[in-house]
Specification:
4-stranded antiparallel β-sheet; globular; single chain; 3-stranded antiparallel β-sheet
Length: about 80
């Protein structure tokens, strides 16, 4: 999933991930690093480091942050003007 001008529109703590409302494409290690399970694989993310990856499942990750977009950005809406 592309980032527009290398900018994400949302950032959430990994433990508060909402895969129904958001699409995540990057993991950020925060100020102390973290260990997180992404797509069934446990990975260590160093402090101030990031990993770009499609995130389909997530668990753990206290200290990690997930960056991405609101789902509606990609799925659109059937209402004229995009108003909900």
């Amino acid at each position: 999933m592309p980032k527009i001008n290398d900018i994400h529109s949302i950032i959430v703590p990994a433990q508060n991930a909402n895969l129904t409302a958001h699409t995540y494409s990057e993991v950020y290690g925060g100020n102390s690093g973290c260990t997180i399970n992404i797509n069934g694989q446990t990975i260590n993310v160093g402090m101030s480091s990031n990993i770009s990856i499609w995130i389909n499942s997530v668990s753990g990750g206290t200290g990690c942050f997930l960056l991405g977009e609101k789902q509606n950005v990609y799925q659109g809406t059937n209402i004229i003007g995009g108003v909900y």
